[in-house]
Amino acid sequence: MQESAVYQAVLEIISEVFQDKVPADHIINDYVKKRKYIGSKDRRLMNETVWKILRRRMRLAYEAESKEPRKILLTFLKDKDFSLITGGKYGLEPLSKEEKKWLDELKTKEFVYPLDIELECPKWLFEKIDNPALIASLNGEAPFNIRANLIDRISLQKRLQGEGLFFSLSPYSPLGLQSTDRVRVNNTIAYHDGLFDVQDESSQISAILCNVKKNEKIVDYCAGAGGKSLALGAILQNEGVVVAHDADMKRTEVLSERANRLKIKNIRLQSQITDKDYDCFVADCPCSGSGTWRRAPDAKFRLTPKRLNELTQIQFEILETAYKHTKKGGRIIYMTCSILKDENESIVTSFARVHPDICFNDHEKLWNDLIGGRFLFYDKRWLNFSPLLTQTDGFFFCSMIKK
């Protein structure tokens, strides 16, 4: 492909992403799948350009004084020689006289952005979060994390090094390795041997802090693709049973395949949860995904106040379900990949007010017993992970006991 054709592809992709209906990675993957002629070098330039634009979307729109995708792309490319990157049969359309004049003027301007624009955060979310440092931390690049599976992480590190991949030890998770580079692991022998799974460090730690035992009755109620179920199954060393359930069981279709690769044999898929004597009810709830903005910067634009309100209602209903199905003395584990108080502290404190027999676990003791090292958090009733505090995705973990 000519470079102009690559930028035309970028324009087509961001035009769809900016409709704020479908995740950007889905749009990119679908675009490439339908155009198998795009070579690896062109695909890399296309991907890098799209993600750079998405990470600067608000600042570019501010500079362009427009939300129109072509103007945003031209603003991003303003220092390029447009005679080299436009034209051709499949290329980016050449600049009009008006665009040339506009770009010449744009190059002479200097910009001072309002803080919400500078931090790439929609104003209503900027005001709700009310923590510029936290928002800024969610604009960085996320490391690539993997969880050692049925093997100690030092042995896994050596195996991967033997295949030319270099990982460092994760700072907190005793199961984790991480890389600052986005590495391709699916073709490694270690991957096909089931020695690791891709999982953010905060999610690894949360699975450990569930503190599951082989003789317990355990359900992962919002199992989805099964990342948490697989981690719990591995922590149990394939003993006991982890029941995996999801409101939409189609989401769990990949779980069996993943379990086979990882040699996890103690997960049972279950479409209906009727028993009321679970020792450990794990609810990794549907949420805004605000904690994952480093990986999905487009997600913040798909979130609306109405959708957030819908999510908080769902989250509270899931906790009510957990309460009905957890035995006295059992644990209810509430998690989200969100940094919003509406979905986190507000939900669990409201839940505890409704049910006086619910108390919060001592999370400092849990941390000391199962993770070790300095306790990083300001409140023992729950844990708020973030890129700012723990260099992980934003994540909320709360273990509650039904007295």
Please describe what this structure looks like:
By secondary structure, the chain is α/β, with parallel strands linked by helices. The protein has 3 domains: 111 residues, no CATH class; 55 residues, Sun protein, domain 3 (Alpha-Beta Plaits, 2-Layer Sandwich), CATH 3.30.70.1170; 201 residues, Rossmann fold (3-Layer(aba) Sandwich). Helices cover 43% and strands 14% of the residues. The protein contains 19 helices and 12 strands. The strands form 2 sheets. Strands 5, 6, 7, 8, 9, 10, 11 and 12 form an 8-stranded mixed β-sheet that branches. Strands 2-3-1-4 form a 4-stranded antiparallel β-sheet. Strand 2 and strand 3 form a beta hairpin. Helix 1 packs across helix 2. The radius of gyration is 23 Å and the shape is globular. The mean pLDDT is 96.
Task: List its traits.
403 residues, alpha/beta, 4-stranded antiparallel beta sheet, 12 strands, 8-stranded mixed beta sheet, Rossmann fold, Alpha-Beta Plaits
How are the elements arranged and paired?
Blueprint: H1 3-17, H2 24-33, H3 40-55, H4 57-64, H5 69-76, H6 82-85, H7 97-107, H8 115-118, H9 123-129, H10 132-137, E1 144-148, H11 153-162, E2 168-169, E3 176-179, H12 189-192, E4 196-198, H13 201-209, E5 217-220, H14 227-235, E6 241-244, H15 253-262, E7 267-269, E8 278-284, H16 299-302, H17 305-325, E9 326-336, H18 345-354, E10 358-360, H19 363-370, E11 383-385, E12 395-402
Parallel strand pairs: 5-6, 5-8, 6-7, 8-9
Antiparallel strand pairs: 1-3, 1-4, 2-3, 9-12, 10-12, 11-12
Helix pairs in contact: 1-2, 1-3, 4-5, 13-14
